[in-house]
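**Protein of interest**
===
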Amino acid sequence: MKRILICAPLRQDVDVFEAYQEGLDRLEVPEGFSADRFFVVNDCDEVIPHIRDAEYIRAENGEAYEKTHNDHLWTLDLMWKMGGLRNMTIRKMLDGGYDYWLSADTDIVLDPWTLYNLIQADRDIVSEIFWTQAPSGKYWCNAWMEDQSAGMSEEWKKPGLYRVGMTGALTLVKRKVFEAGVSYERIPNIRQALRGEDRHFCVRAACAGFEMWIDTHCPATHLYTRELFEKYKAGRR
């Protein structure tokens, strides 16, 4: 039996987290696999009573994380602290003897066939795509080819499996990637040129010889703002 750890740092509005968990509940787990859930609760104790079917630990970083009605306000320090929280989930995966690590951010609702498709892809690092509308009106996704966010392709709106330069937020990783030393630790001599722990993970992975891929067969729903969450809930009534 192959084992998967589904995990994420957790600092989220309770109602958005409930929608996220409902998505996890609907996941189809392939035959021959089992899946457990693990969260690192980050300065968000009010969500703890709502966690179900999961193990969790508490972590505090002492820095406020703010959102407006249409954007997230990330500081560099918060990004690096987020990398540390993700590394906690990697340690849990390795120490627990899991074969796969599925990181799924807690503002994403997964399609029921997400896990099935990612396992079927049989890549060392593979994400499921989601598209988000930025405050400017432009759409962006969780994969790109190089640098901070260059090289997103309209081709990725067609169902398929595509090699990419960087990815994150909804990613399946095989154990051997972490055993090779890849992590979310900040690359010491890069501070502002690449902003975000996912980018540092991807650079480390590429330097270790691993490819990154994006699957587009079952796009996820990104509840990036309250407005998007309200539209999602209205559509499910």
